[in-house]
């Protein structure tokens, strides 16, 4: 989640812990299965390649990855669908929640409960999405950049560079994501993952940070929640 330094730091530590509990692997598997519907060859399916790269970044075993690909490409009963929900957190913070689920009613019920419990509420379609732009995001496996490295990233076609979190995040136009990623790898940058994101057009300051963090944690604990985007720096 680009720009959320405190949340990103705690989330990264949590993901490392969740990987041991298989919680994170469950989410990564769903992501791979959904992407594999458009083709099981990652060389020809960029979305699948991004999903696999992300899984590898968290040391997901190859057997798990292969099973997820087979399930999504038809060798199994894959009924997982992608859903996008919009809502407001404590203090009016805008949230977009991407869900991967085989049971929409269960997912909506869970989200309503989580939002309500932590001082938020789900909104209708389009209620907050207008506050965000769809972008590409590339996470580099490094924490600092030299001036020379920054120039190389800009020359590769990056739109912005986010250094607010533990890892360097390169922001691109969505249709340039694969091109920029390939150029960065050719320039010897270690790419950890790449994906489509919803990036807030303007950031706001939350006056209910502690309550918002609890909401984000609760959403992230839900097995159906794949990604969360918000318009506050937290």
Question: In brief, what are we looking at here?
Answer:
By secondary structure, this protein is of the alpha+beta class. The chain has helices at residues 5-21, 23-36, 46-57, 62-72, 104-117, 147-155, 177-186, 209-221; strands spanning 81-88, 94-101, 121-123, 132-140, 160-162, 168-172, 191-200, 225-230.
**Helical fraction:** 40-55%
Class by alpha and beta content = alpha+beta
- CATH superfamily annotation of one domain: Integrase, N-terminal zinc-binding domain
What order do the strands of the largest sheet run in, or round the barrel if closed?
3-1-2-8
Bulk shape: globular
Number of alpha- plus pi-helical segments:
8
Largest sheet report? 4 strands, antiparallel
CATH-derived architecture of one domain: Orthogonal Bundle
What does the average pLDDT come to? 87
Strand content: 15-25%
What are the low-pLDDT stretches, counting only 5+ consecutive residues below 50? 1-5
- What do we call the CATH topology of one domain? Arc Repressor Mutant, subunit A
The first-level CATH class name of one domain: Mainly Alpha
**Structural Rg:** 17 Å
* Distance between the ends: 10 Å
Secondary structure tally: strands: 8
**H/E series:** HHHHEEHEEHEEHEHE
């Amino acid at each position: 989640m680009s720009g959320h330094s405190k949340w990103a730091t705690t989330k990264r530590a949590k993901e490392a812990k969740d990987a041991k509990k298989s919680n994170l692997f469950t989410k990564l598997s769903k992501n791979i299965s959904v992407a594999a519907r458009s083709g099981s060859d990652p060389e020809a399916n960029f979305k699948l390649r991004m999903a696999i790269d992300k899984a590898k970044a968290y040391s997901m075993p190859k057997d798990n990855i292969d099973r997820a690909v087979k399930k999504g490409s038809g060798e199994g009963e894959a009924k997982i669908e992608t859903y996008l929900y919009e809502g407001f957190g404590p203090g009016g913070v805008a949230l977009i929640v991407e869900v991967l689920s085989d049971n929409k009613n269960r997912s909506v019920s869970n989200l309503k409960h989580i939002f309500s419990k932590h001082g938020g509420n789900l909104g209708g379609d389009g209620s907050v999405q207008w506050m965000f732009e769809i972008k590409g995001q590339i996470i580099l496996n490094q924490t600092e950049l030299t001036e020379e490295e920054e120039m190389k990233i800009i020359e590769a076609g990056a739109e912005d560079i986010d250094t607010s979190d533990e890892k360097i995040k390169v922001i691109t136009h969505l249709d340039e994501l694969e091109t920029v990623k390939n150029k960065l790898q050719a320039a010897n940058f270690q790419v950890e993952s790449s994906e489509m994101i919803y990036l807030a057009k303007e950031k706001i300051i939350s006056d209910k940070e502690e309550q918002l963090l609890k909401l984000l944690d609760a959403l992230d604990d839900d097995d159906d929640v794949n990604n969360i985007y918000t318009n506050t720096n937290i």
